[in-house]
Amino acid sequence: MRPLTYSRASAVADAVHAVTVDPESAYLAGGTTEIDLLRQDVLTPGRLVDINDLPLTGIEETRGALVIGALARMSDVAAAPAVRTRYPLLAQALEAGASAQLRHMATMGGNLLQRVRCGYFRDTESPCNKRRPGSGCGALTGVNRGHAVLGTSEHCIATHPSDAAVALTALDARVHTRTTAGHGAYHIDDFFLLPGDTPHREHPLEHGELITSIEIPDTPTARNSTYLKVRDRASYEFALVSVAATLQLEQGRISGVRLALGGVATKPWRARRAERLLLGAGADRRAFAEAAREELADAAPTPMNAFKVELAQRAVVRALESLA
Amino acid sequence: MTATAPTPVIGRPLPRVDGRPKTTGTARYSADVSLPGLTHAVLVGAAIARGRITAIDAADALDAPGVLAVLTHENLPRVTAQPPLLPSLAGGPSPGQTFCPMQDDRIHYAGQHIAVVVADTYERALYAARLVHVRYREEDPVAVLDQGRDQAYVPEKIFGGLLPGRSARGDVEAGLERAEVRVEATYTFAPNHQNPLETSSTTAMWEGGRLFLHDATQGPAATQHTVSVMLGIPHADIRVYSHYVGGSFGAKASTWDHPLLAALAARHVGRPVRLALTREQMFTSCGHREEQEHRIALGADRDGRLTALRHHKLSLTSHFDDWAETSLEAPAQVYACPAHEGVYRLVRGNTMTPTFMRCPGEGSGMFALESALDELATRLDIDPLELRLRNHADRDPASGKPWSSHGLRECYERGAERIGWDRRVAGRPEREGPWTIGLGMASAVYPIVPPSNPQRARARIYADGSAVAQAATAEFGTGAATAMAQVLADALGLPVERCRFEGGDTDLPNVASTVGSTGAAMVGSAVHLAAVALRDQLIGRAVADERSPLHGADPGAVVPVDGRMALRDDPGTGESYAELLTRHFQPDAEAYGSFGPPQGEPPAAMITLGAHFVEVAVDGELGRVRVRRMAGAFAPGRVLNARTAKGQLMSGMLWGMSQALLEATHMDAATGRWANPSLGDYLIPVHADTPEVTVDLIETADHVVNPLGVKGVGEIGQSGTAAAIANAIHHATGRRIRKLPMTVEDTL
């Protein structure tokens, strides 16, 4: 492995300072993806600042919102009673991700920042605009069965791999950060960037900006929610398609709905078009199917992943039906 | 009074003797061996799939901390000779391919080894390997069948020259002509990689001109012979150890170039070298199951009796070897069909030479055949099991000989009962919410290959009554060490706790590589014969010894019981081995056993058979397939250890499920590079995929195959499994999937 410097920070300000002043540095949290990528020479930091000792592991209710520390482990968040009762979709999404061992290590902040599973990103011999801007995209005409059909660009079609981020997107979560200058906050929709012409920029964070917590607003409708994940094997596998959904009905009409898609887009995909169509509509299969069709109308599939367009629509219908 | 026959130890479900060392971490694998002055080698693989190296610059790598040497085609010594391709079952040199890298600047496949970096630590070697800068002149590769389809040819021979590229019996054209029903279909298969948990590794050390290799292999002798020929040093100067091997599935069945490179690197730096492949390198260093497609045409009369079967296979091989996994031979022996034609067609491409992988050949051939039979059953509206019974082969259709033993009917019966086959109604699957439930079945077959040279073992008993059997076989997770102790115990009449098996060292009596489901039969027979020879030797000594209570007895009337030699008709008269040896001031006694090769033409045809029955649930709206139950019944002759045998058969079935639904290595056709070389992206089943699995052992007496009547359980668990699953999916959905793996988009 490439030689690098390693240090452990015990205070947030120290960590942020250490990384901010060294452009070759990176944070190390759970390391469940980062270490692999270091070994594969995909990531090449000269310094790792280990932040596992920082006091950012809390899961607390504050003024109705739930605030999850950036270093809370996926397994702890999934097990938290407040998460299980108030946001079942998030608990389900977390438990559908990775394996038990990885969930014990991986942190919530790291989960949001996890890198794509694209084989061309991970193969340093292949062109990849994310890894080496301007080098091209091997996936566009290569093996792209797992790749995105929404939010793609001619420079990148890699799928955002997180499950938890899909649930958090449906929940309008906010991402809180620290910089050497102070505090920052992003609505989750703004936190993930579409690849466009700059696929190497996946989020708006400055170098050294550290995620400190994720805030989930009070969302009573989320008590009736689900996370449906379709994948090639029954566990320990990324989504081909996933759906995070909440649904509230009043007198047979949809009075509240949140929908986000995973596995099909370059970022966790909030299905706002579908939501708009569903609000006020009857909670029936036809309405669900039409909303799903509308959401996928702009899909740009490849021959290998064309099935995702149909599968995503069916998954939306199935998820909503299970809540109706 | 007559001695009651002792309860045989053979067959008992004893726990594996290697279980504790493996689960507690005390077992030492080839890359665990620690030697004074050990250094570490890391391979560099070619970035391109076809072309030439125009420049290779190792300066940065050599400057990196801890680096001792960088070997490339520019400074690596040329090999003395390239042995021909030959499966390691034959016992001689057995390279996985006849191309040795780093001999010139030519690149034939992506990942081809082009440099070896040696450093004082593994991490430093890994880093420096990234600093070897290579420039290429690239050519367009042929990486998938579609790029070379028009250049397909029928090879004269495949499989190291052991099998013809074309074979036929009867008149297939006439058989298809007179058929009242014909099924013609094409089945396609993604390439697969074996992916054992332990990546291949070799630790090499030279001492005074002698070479010592710790190598992860299915055949220590194969490594010895291959490296010896390629280095031009005497066989006698190479000793190979392989005490524990962390799985293989064919990846370690042949000798690839890394043991040779480890040896050359160790010679170059003058220190021991450990060379462990990375997981990514496992995809470009040990062969793979090739991309292939099978075309089947079968004809039958209205009652479903087969009139002809034509089975053609098209597959991708390397530029240097005519290799195809043997998909067409054993499947041609399952059913009574008067006419059969098997033809291999090959396309040369920019890949390694393909190789053995779990149920090599039958795993693909039986998917095609058993799927086609299911299609025939549907066409004729005959129950799939009934169709197979109507075509039951009472004799070997290939040779016309009777079977040495069979057992397929009993397997059908037991499996059908387990799964509840009689509740199956064609075209009417059961439903549970979004799931439709389908039942499917298929036959299983695996060939029996007799030894091509003597398989030897040594049995030794010590004066304290403990015994050890030895042979140069490797224990790579099959349970061999446990079963061999059982064989030894029965032949000597010793408690099994007093018996031990030792292997994994070429200084021990030679056996061929443990491949092709032959380990139990070959090593077992050799151990049995050695132990019987030792027993007879000691009984002979006793009856000739005036001081023995057995003096003067007929040796044939003396039997071994509970560590004693005693008169069969008067068990009170006798003595222990220990008493005999101690009296003669003899610390131990030993004898050799040698099994095969068979003299003359065997009187009967030999084959291993079985049957699969599976229940799947299909959520067609979301394309999800879940295998719920698998019932396998197999007739492996005599079973040495019911626990390890069931374990092997069960895992074979699960690998079959894996082949059916998950396993695929995706080739990037433009670059010729594998696109998913990791266990994160090459999917194999996890526990959540694993259904309820039952394994029934139908033991059959077989006096022809070998002295123990053992046929082997290593691979037949996977033979036909994928077809049974495909057939169940068809029952559930009416959809016929003719490709592996069958994934979401196929059932959507």
Describe this structure in words.
The complex is a heterodimer of chains A (324) and B (748). With 324 residues, chain A is of the alpha+beta class. Chain A has 13 helices and 12 strands. Among the domains of chain A are: 5-52, Uridine Diphospho-n-acetylenolpyruvylglucosamine Reductase, domain 2; 224-323, CO dehydrogenase flavoprotein, C-terminal domain (Enolase-like, domain 1, 2-Layer Sandwich), CATH 3.30.390.50. Chain A has a 5-stranded antiparallel sheet with strand order 4-5-8-6-7. A 4-stranded antiparallel sheet of chain A has the order 9-10-11-12. Chain B is an alpha+beta fold. Chain B has 3 domains: 19-24 and 454-595, Aldehyde oxidase/xanthine dehydrogenase, molybdopterin binding domain (Aldehyde Oxidoreductase, domain 4); 36-357, Aldehyde Oxidoreductase, domain 4; 360-450 and 603-748, Aldehyde oxidase/xanthine dehydrogenase, molybdopterin binding domain (Aldehyde Oxidoreductase, domain 4, 2-Layer Sandwich), CATH 3.30.365.10. Chain B has a 7-stranded mixed sheet. In chain B, helix 7 runs parallel beside helix 14 (721-733), helix 10 runs parallel beside helix 11 (519-544) and helix 13 (642-661) packs across helix 14 (721-733).
The fourth-level CATH homologous superfamily of the domain at 224-323 in chain A is: CO dehydrogenase flavoprotein, C-terminal domain
Secondary structure tally: strands of chain B: 32
- Rg of chain B, please? 27 Å
Structural class of chain A: alpha+beta
In round numbers, the mean pLDDT of chain A is 97
Largest interface: A-B, 34 and 36 residues
Q: Would you give the CATH topology of the largest domain in chain B? A: Aldehyde Oxidoreductase, domain 4
Quaternary structure annotation? heterodimer
CATH class of the domain at 224-323 in chain A: Alpha Beta
Fraction of residues in H or I helices of chain B? 10-25%
Q: What is the CATH topology of the domain at 224-323 in chain A?
A: Enolase-like, domain 1
Domains counted in the coordinates of chain B: how many? 3
By DSSP (H or I, 4+ residues per run), the number of helices of chain B equals 15
- pLDDT < 50 stretches of chain A: none
Order of helices and strands of chain A: EHEHEEEHHHHHHHEEHEEEEEHHH
Which structural class is indicated by helix and strand composition of chain B? alpha+beta
Number of strands of chain A: 12
Q: Sketch the major β-sheet of chain B.
A: 7 strands, mixed
Shape of chain B: globular
CATH superfamily of the largest domain in chain B: Aldehyde oxidase/xanthine dehydrogenase, molybdopterin binding domain
